[in-house]
């Protein structure tokens, strides 16, 4: 039995489906309020037998603050894919992210102790990586630098990783994957699923670059690493680095919209100043903080060489990925 947490998320659902395609028995965690119909509908984007696979899932409600609930979910489970987590760059979500990402991971790992679990895959993020190598690229050795300012999301993922490394040191077989921005279908109003909606509505883009990856590639790599018993390592999972403007214009052209424009430095400085002066009064302005603005305007290149060499993996190109998932977005909006 395999447990997938965060199974209604943009990545978790595809990992569940890929495991089912490989003949695995899958138990999937959800919240009582989760929309399973939306998950079922999104399966049609990835398989011609969506109902068949969906009906094989054993869904279970889990409270990550309740150790008994977690231990019940882990009954007879041999492998765990921990995809559950909250992604946000709003400072108002800081405590929720810490509780969900750090405390939730710690609790799950505690529950794994003295259980049947033998393998554990943790989904982290490239957001935890700092510094560049001799090729001026971010790689797996670009360790988190506590002296550098980070977003609350980055901090939450870093300290979640620390919990995984602790469990690894205590004997659990663990592997960490660090995806870039995941391009996927369904769950359009959450996490990276919001990307198409944002590019659809707003004719603007930031000046920086981002590392993107297709959700199908992330799921296949995660499962391959577990199947090959690759443990005690972390792997960056990205396809390509692309300018945000190029991605925005590709999406907007497909949607029949005008080309996007880069938000000027003057506008961003105004937004930052507005946050300083009025953020206490208008909470939404707090997203225009120094860390967030540096993130969306930076042009750091992220390396995928380690995972390509390890698995001899060929990634789906960013524009091919965007084209596939954008067609699904348009189909869902009709």
Give the CATH level 1 class: Alpha Beta
- Silhouette: globular
Distance between the termini: 38 Å
CATH H level: which superfamily? NAD(P)-binding Rossmann-like Domain
**Shape-level CATH architecture:** 3-Layer(aba) Sandwich
Beta percentage is 15-25%
Q: Strands of the biggest beta sheet: in what spatial order?
A: 3-2-1-4-5-7-11
User: Class by helix and strand content?
Assistant: alpha/beta
The proportion of residues forming helix, as a percent range, comes to 40-55%
Order of helices and strands: EHEHHEHEHEEHEEHEEHEEHEHHEHH
Beta-strand segment tally: 14
Instruction: Summarize the main sheet.
Output: 7 strands, parallel
Q: Into how many domains do the coordinates divide?
A: 1
CATH fold node name: Rossmann fold
Question: How many helices does DSSP assign?
Answer: 13
Instruction: Name the poorly predicted regions.
Output: 278-282
């Amino acid at each position: 039995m395999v447990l997938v947490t965060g199974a209604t998320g943009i990545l978790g659902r595809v990992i569940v489906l890929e495991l089912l395609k490989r003949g695995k028995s899958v138990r999937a965690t959800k919240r009582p309020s989760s929309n399973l119909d939306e998950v079922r509908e999104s399966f049609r984007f990835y398989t011609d037998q969506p109902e068949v696979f969906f009906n094989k899932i054993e869904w279970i409600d889990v409270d990550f603050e309740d150790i008994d609930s977690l231990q019940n979910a882990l009954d007879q489970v041999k492998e765990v894919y921990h995809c559950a987590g909250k992604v946000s760059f709003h400072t108002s979500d800081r405590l929720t992210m810490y509780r969900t990402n750090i405390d939730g991971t710690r609790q799950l790992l505690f529950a794994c102790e003295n259980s049947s679990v033998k393998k554990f895959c943790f989904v982290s993020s490239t957001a935890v990586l700092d510094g560049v190598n001799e090729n001026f690229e971010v790689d797996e050795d670009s360790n988190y630098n506590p002296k550098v300012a980070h977003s609350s999301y980055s901090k939450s993922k870093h300290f979640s990783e620390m919990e995984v490394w602790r469990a690894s040191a205590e004997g659990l077989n663990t592997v960490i994957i660090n995806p870039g921005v995941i391009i996927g279908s369904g769950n359009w109003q959450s996490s990276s699923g919001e990307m198409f909606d944002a590019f659809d509505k707003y004719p603007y883009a930031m000046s920086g670059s981002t590392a993107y990856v297709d959700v199908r590639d992330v799921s296949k790599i995660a499962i391959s690493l577990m199947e090959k018993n690759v443990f005690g390592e972390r792997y960056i999972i990205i396809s390509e680095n692309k300018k945000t403007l190029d991605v925005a214009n590709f999406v907007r052209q497909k949607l029949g919209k005008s080309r996007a424009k880069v938000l000027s430095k003057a506008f961003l400085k105004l937004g930052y100043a507005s946050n300083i002066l009025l953020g206490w009064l208008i909470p939404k302005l707090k997203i225009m903080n120094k860390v967030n603005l540096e993130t969306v305007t930076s042009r750091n290149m992220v390396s995928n060489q380690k995972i390509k060499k390890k698995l001899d993996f060929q990634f789906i190109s960013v524009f091919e990925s965007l084209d596939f998932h954008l067609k699904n977005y348009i189909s869902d909006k009709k």
